[in-house]
Amino acid sequence: MKKSLAAVRVLTAASLVTVLAACGGGESASGGTLRVGTLSDSKPNAYQENGVFTGFDNELLKAIATSQNLKLEFVSTEFSTLLSQVANGKFDIGSSGISQTDERRKTVDFSAPYNYQSLGIEARDGAGITDEKSLAGKRIGVVQGTVSDSWLAANAPAAQAVRFPQDAAALAALKAGAIDGAIFDQATAEDYAAKNPDAKLKVVKAITTTIPHGFAVKKGNTELIGKLNAGLKQVIADGTWEKVHQRFEPNAPVPAEFKAGQQ
């Protein structure tokens, strides 16, 4: 559940990748259009803005696709069903800040890591929440099946987990007072606090993990994994990774292995 605008021109959808209208099932990496399952409401990783799918994960994937001459078609789905949809072939790639856990590796294969998971505990002023120890007895929102979900169960078992299908539903419940707090990706939680001043939301604690993010691919699709990994090496080496990161997560540190020239 993980972070020089002079070259922004290379990050636009038009210059990076051809995104086509929905047209059926996935194709192989060697031809046709690859269907990408993603989210529409999970800033800064994966969201839709003015009808365009964007965010750190999706713009990075577009750059990778350009380097490997791949065509992408982005389709919105819910995180709770995304991995099963990749596994059954509905989508060729899953892109949404997916943490590579042992349990998920039983369902799908992953690209090489391209970021790391960090979480944020978010609460309204006056909720009495300061850290994981204060979650006991509280109604805490999480998106079902995410690292936030498993982290809450492992680190605050006395909390009452309230599970939602997507971030937007959890945020709405938090703003309405239906839950006491929520756990999101750290950058997402910070964005929600900044964009909703009337709700008086605050990220009370950030939790950094060593769990890597990866693009999900159907098990056994070594051809596509190879292309994604080759493209990832290229965009790290030429500095594109850092430019995309600066665009979407300017306050998050850049891990050493993702700095230009490291691949």
What distinguishing features does this structure have?
D-Maltodextrin-Binding Protein, domain 2; five-stranded mixed sheet; 26% strand; globular; disordered N terminus
Tell me what portion of residues adopts beta-strand conformation: 25-35%
Low-confidence stretches: 1-30
Radius of gyration: 18 Å
Characterize the biggest β-sheet.
5 strands, mixed
CATH class call of the largest domain = Alpha Beta
Question: Describe it for me?
Answer:
With 263 residues, this protein is α/β, with parallel strands linked by helices. The protein has two domains: 5-114 and 214-258, D-Maltodextrin-Binding Protein, domain 2 (3-Layer(aba) Sandwich), CATH 3.40.190; 118-210, Periplasmic binding protein-like II (D-Maltodextrin-Binding Protein, domain 2, 3-Layer(aba) Sandwich). It has nine helices and 13 strands. A five-stranded mixed beta sheet has the order 5-1-6-13-7, with helices on both faces. The protein has a five-stranded mixed beta sheet with strand order 10-9-11-8-12, with helices on both faces. Strand 3 and strand 4 form a beta hairpin. The longest helix has 16 residues, at 222-237. The chain is globular and about 50 Å long.
